[in-house]
Amino acid sequence: SMASAQLVQWREEVVFIPRESLLGTFVDPVATDFILLTGPGELSQDAERITDKQVRNARSEYPSIPGRIMPGTFKFPTYVKPDTAVGVVPESSTLWNSCFGVETVVGATSVEYLFPVNATAANPTPASFSIWRRLGHHFMAGRGAGVTKGTIKFSGKTEIEAEWSGNFLEKAQGAEDLLAAAMTDTSGTSLTLTNATNWHLPANMWFY
Questions:
Q1: Helix extents (H) in 62-151
Q2: Backbone torsions φ then ψ of 115, nearest 5 degrees
Q3: Is the pTM of this model over 0.90?
Q4: What average pLDDT does the chain have?
């Protein structure tokens, strides 16, 4: 559709990272899950395609065989931004907790991130998180995410920056589309779109 041909600008990128209570179960974002990036983010997942070696008496080969879905990867650059109040978690606290493993908050005193010696009640396994990313008209989401690498960069002449990268279990995506015909389902549970390949559950829909 014409909508999916629109150009996308990086400044239109919006990212939310809500923590999951159950690994791999999407959690809807709220305002406090929003993070500001200092550069373009990345969210991708590749599908394996296997060449079909079967021989047939034809000019063309058999279509490739769908293989495994590789773990998704993400990368988000942010500033290191402590909260203005003592004892309140910083912006991107979900990324800090996922990277280090243990988040200890002492109200009105401190917030600490430590590597756990082992996973116990006092040192729990860090929570996974969902990723909700909108880039212009393109919507993407990832479930079961976790940080595998965090890099802190500072030189004394600029703001302290962090770059977070890791993996997630599964990606969903969607984009702008047009109705193929007037809505006829009075129950409001069915829509026919011009390009169904733009959509992948559990995408949400906005009408305008």
A1: 93-100
A2: -80, 130
A3: no
A4: 82
Cα 134 to Cα 206: distance, rounded to the nearest angstrom: 13
Task: State both tokens at 144.
Answer: 């079961």
Buried b (16+ CB within 10 A) or exposed e, 93-129: bbbbbbbbbbbeeeeeeebebeeeeeeeeeeeebbbb
Distance, C-alpha 116 to centroid of its chain: 25
Tell which wins on pLDDT, 143 or 124: 143
For 185-197, the DSSP string reads -TTS----BS-GG
Which residues pair with residue 77 across a beta bridge?
163
- What is the rounded CA–CA span in Å between residue 103 and residue 139? 30
Which phi and psi (to 5°) does residue 130 adopt? -95, 150
Q: What is the pLDDT of residue 23?
A: 92
| Residue in this structure with the two tokens 């060449």, named with its chain if needed | 51
Question: Where is pLDDT greater, at 131 or 134?
Answer: 131
CA atoms within 13 A on the CB side of 85: 7
When mean pLDDT is compared across 123-132, 134-143, 198-207, the lowest value belongs to 198-207
Per-residue model confidence (pLDDT) at position 4? 43
Give strand pairing partners of 46. none
